[in-house]
Design goal:
four-stranded parallel β-sheet; disordered N terminus; 12 helices; alpha/beta; 12 strands; Rossmann fold
Length: 323
Amino acid sequence: MKKIKWWIWFFVGLISLGLAGCESSSGKAQTDDTSKSGKTLQIDNYERELSISEKPNKVLTLGPNTTELFIALGLDDYVIGNSLDNHSRGALPKYEEAYKQIPELTYGSATREAVLTSGADFIYGIEWEFGKEALNLEELKDYGMTTYVNQAETLDEMYKEILDIGKIFEVEDRAEDFVADQKNRIASIKEQVQEQKSVDVLVYDSGGEGVFTAGGTNFETLLIESAGGRNIFDDISDKQWATVSYEEVVARDPDVILIHDYDAPSVERKIEDIKNHPVLSKLESVQKENFITISLESVLPGNRMAYSVETLAEGFYSDLVGE
């Protein structure tokens, strides 16, 4: 019996060594895979060089446009908080459920305290969330947060942002497919409207001392142009947003007034203000109620490029698009 027990333990030992060797090999392979995927990425974010040695795990998306892009790329599980829902009219229907699951960091602009105590290691945020009176990029870096700023002024720049996010989060194929779909849909609209007369468009964000509108370098201007329109203030080249006089609006005589929809004041209130305004009410486009509304997040640089161009083109040429 003792000899039998000895040989049994001998073979058990050999088997155990073999299994341990297999586990060791498997563990080494896994480590190699991790180090391979963890090669440092050098990303140019509008002349800011980002070095990313490993895939981020906890993300803040500052702006509804940046949040929805992460959902569109299937990366919503990484997002631990978002901001600027006050600039949102809700996600597109196919993204609604995923958007609801994302915690709200702040309803308006992100605060320094909320961001620094969030535990995030990566931030994808719209440009106006950063700067002298907002979040400090260097301070965020000191807290171990890599920040990718969303500030595209051209379609190609937005496509690059999407592809960069794809590289950083290792979903390059998904990002490439998404960009290709956007390009194809926008090209289709351009083809449909190319023979049509261009529509002169006033972007009406809000009123007051004048009309707060989009300038020529604003991303929205590109969307309007892709849909067959022309921003009547596209000659404002030194800033994306500007306040212009009511008299200047009347002088440029827009065919259509494109009204931004967000929390307050409501679109209905804005339309009433325009119709009752002593100067704007003189416009033929106002008298004919040639109003188009679009949610503000839809004209920010993000995942809605094609959707927005399609929506605008339908408003400009309702008898053409969608036939």
